[in-house]
Amino acid sequence: MASEQDVIARVQHLTVTRLRVWVAQGLIKPADEDAPSFSEADIARAALISNLEDELGFAEEDVPVLLNLIDQIHGLRSELRGLLEALDDLPADVRTTVRMRIERRRRG
Amino acid sequence: MAEDLYSVLGVAKTASAGDVTKAYRKLAKKLHPDLNPGDKAAEEKFKQVAQAYSILNDPDKRGQYDRGDIDASGQERPQERYYREYAGGPQGARYHSTAGYEDIGAFSDLFGDVFSGGAGMRGARGGGGRFAMRGQDAQYRLDISFLDAVNGTKQRITLPDGGTLDVTIPPGVSEGQVLRLKGKGMPGGGEGPPGDALVEIAVKLHPVFNRDGNDIVVEVPIGVDEAVLGGKIEVPTITGRVAVTVPPGSNTGQTLRLKGRGVKSKTGAGDQLVRLSVMLPETIDDDLKSFAEDWRKTHAYDPRRKLKEQA
Questions:
Q1: Is the ipTM of this complex over 0.95?
Q2: What is the pTM assigned to this prediction?
């Protein structure tokens, strides 16, 4: 786990103030609020926010919207993966049935 | 990477620094790996765009590139680790949002359980182990008629608790076969899915039809005259009566095959086998008796010749 200083050292253009704003906004959720410690995912997330604002030029107020959408996508992807893995455990004929039903739905 | 850096960004060689940044941002917003998780093509394109921008955005390097001092590859940027690489793992799980698709749950109990349950549990436990127990399977037995088993049907079972269970019986179901109705068993615990309903099929015997795999076997009596002279007879099948031609000289034990008149199940379509059986009239009248007496005098034959040879 990394401290505030570690995160700032590893993410370009990052300051303590910016990082604390993101934590206060709930964009980044360190493990312990009082003596925050950051996981690799938190650091990558800080780098992403920094990247969205500085390099890609998104407006500061748009970034939470983007993160919300990204989080929804990962939530969906994770549930979808879980569903697919659960399907994988089923007998082959059941999987075929499911696949056929999905295809039928797609055709309308 | 031999491609021209200006064309990668879609700008002219004379483009201002501001135009280069503008072009880069436009492409990067479209192609950024964290905005396109799982899209390999976008990632490759993004790398080229980022590479081009890293050179063209730097006045010194841009000058070197324009003079031909460095080629398009410049220096490799250190490989960035994108957020998406963590997002799917346990550390990223706490950021997952399920707020956007609670409406999907209304369409399906399965999705409702998995999704809405998942969000709450995760929040409470910070991505730790989730409570999920699959419901128990419920077992039922269903008696159906021979023809329903052969042709398929829908049946409704009334459950002990007063509820009902609709069972679709596929054509060709056989005695003792178990139909599994996904999710129709006991409810699950926590996020766990419900169990399945297992319906064991019992098929009642039919007075006329017998089954041999997908073939239907029927014993059909024919008269002495029909056996000798042949003719058209009516034969029952599982889908109704059909006319069948009995060839002249047909005997007991001979079988006529009616193609495609058997069970049409998942494993294929069977035939109906008509097993002929020569039947004397119930009362032997004088005419038949005297005919047999006369016929025997001149046409005696031994129907047990084969039997004697074999035993």
A1: no
A2: 0.47
